[in-house]
Structures are given as structure tokens and as C-alpha cells.
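Working notes for the structural subgroup meeting. M.R. asked for a predicted model of this chain before we commit to crystallization trials. I am recording the input and output together here so anyone reviewing the notebook later can reproduce the run.

Input as submitted:
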Amino acid sequence: MVIKPVLGQMMLSICGTMEKTMTFQSEKQTVRDFYRALENASGSEIDRIMGQFCAPDLLWRGFHPFNEIRGCAEVGQRFWQPLRSSLAHLQRRMDIFMAGNNEIAGQEGVWVVSMGHLMGLFDKPWLGIPPTGKMALLRYCEFNKVKNGMITQSAMFFDIPHLMMQAGLQPFPPQTAAHLVQPGPMTHNGLLFEAQDSVEGQRTKEAIEFMINDIKTWRNGEEEPLVDELRRSWNEDMIWWGPAGIGATYTIERYAQQHSGPFREGFKNRTFNGHLCRVAEGHFGGFFGWPNLTLTPTGGFMGMPASETPGDMRVIDMYRRDGDKLTENWIFIDLLHFWNMQGVDILTRMAQVPRS
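Returned structure, recorded in C-alpha cell form:
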């Protein structure tokens, strides 16, 4: 008579364990295999590799001037082959690797995320940026949607102005924060190749969503000191690793002074357009939109002229949680696209400036 209750308890225990250790290992392996094959492929083999791991109608979203590309063959020919030709002996040096289940309507499914640098010898021009013959790092973050063992969508965001600076160019006036080659997590544990406790991932997702919903930028209401608002979501020793043209900043007070405050003062008519993907695993998580924000730089920003023309910001944010709050944040913004909408073509302008 006691067998059924015991079996019931066992089933509950098993189900609870399965839920706690829910993994995305097959999707992660697909992306890792793709990266390994792509890194070892010669230029003539890239089309085959793309076809092996990516759906024929792959939707690929990249920063200006690439924008949206449809089709795995087109992505290989327009992005990977020219980049591989310019940055010889290309290596992918990852700082974060994770996956999660995206619940945003229309984009549901498992997405695998990697972040770090693509490193190579900058031997040939890329997008008109002059080569240096030296080692160069292209900072990147990539979201890949994996379905039935194939990559069906990608968001590949990369910091082109950072590469320009390595080539001796200055695409923007002096920035408010520090320009650095950005490291990965302070804890050095961002490569989540193994299965993670889903409870920790849920805590990270909740911390990110609390921060998003608490930002006063996107809603009207009684103003409060910016640092007080930030302290609800961030640890005091938070680090904001911003893109070239804005820079990195450390601690809540300096973040408010060197980025968040100037950002809020520089824009009006700020509209949050939502995200296409938002995932978390372990202590890491992130999101991207296309675009995330639409805003008007009426107060000027980044030392650039003020404008009454709205512009779109395509953004990837990656986070590390420590305790119940966020503590590190890596940001990728398509600044070339934003300023192009303002009538400023940074790539063309830099092609006309002698390298320092």
C-alpha cells in the first residue's frame, strides 16, 4: 500500500531534478562544431561549412554596412570570406558562451550566445579600414537560434569603430569613458560548455528584467537621483563595458557621470522597441533588438552634432549577475548605423582621413 506514495515521491524528485538541470547541450554543440569548422576552413570551403550548419534561408543580422542578409551562402560570401581574407589566421577568442530558451513571441526557441574577440593579422583592408600588418581584435557578440540541429537565425554584432582605432583612425571625438580592449568576466567563468543549474539562470533573467522595467528613461514619473535608481539593479562595483565611441566605466557613480547621465541628457523622444531575444543561463544573460531603441539626439552625443532626426540603435547587452544584482555589462551598439541615419557616414569619412 505504500508503493504508490513512494513512487509518486520518486517521480516528483526526478521531475524536479530534470527541471533543475535542464540543458541546451545539443544546441551548444551545434554552434561549437560550426565555430570549429569555420575557423579551420579555407576561403573556398566557407560556403560548404555555411551550408552544413546553417539553414539555406538563414536570416543574418549584422551591423552597418551589412545589415540584414538572407541565405547562408550570401552570409559566407559577403561577410565571412572578406573578413577572413583581411584578418589572416583568424581566431575566435570567446569570453562568454551560453544558451537559453527565448520566450519572446515570434522568436521562441533555443538561442546560443557567444561573446569575445575575433583576432587575426590585419593584412588587407576591410570596409575601407587600412591594414596594419599587426595583430588586431574585432570585438563581437553573436546570438544563434538553433532548430533541428541547424542555425536558422543569427545576430552578429561587432565593434567596427574599435577596429578603426586600432588602425590609427579616430571615428569619433574624445569619449566620456575609457577606450580599452575589453576583457571577459572578472570571474573567468563565462564559458558555460557544461550544463547549468536552471535556478541560477532564472535568477539572472529576473535580475535583467527587473533592471529593464525599472529604467526611468522609458517612462514618465517623478524624478529621483540617477544613482539611487541604478542601485536597485546594480552592485556598487559594477562595470559597464561600452562600445568604442563611448567607452567603459566603473562603479555606479562613475557610470552615472560618464555614460548614463550624458546619454539621458543627450536624447529625447526615447522609444523602447522591445527585444527579439532575451536569454539567461547560470550567472550570465543578455538580449538584442532590431532596433532596441529609437531616439533623437537633440542634446548632441559622443561629441557629435545635435539633431532633430530620430535614429535607431541596434543593441546587444550581455550581463553577469553577482548575488541578486547585475555587476558586469558588455554593450554592442551599431553606432555606424545610428549616425548614418543622421546623415554622417563614418566609414566614408574615415576613408578620407590619413591614418595617424
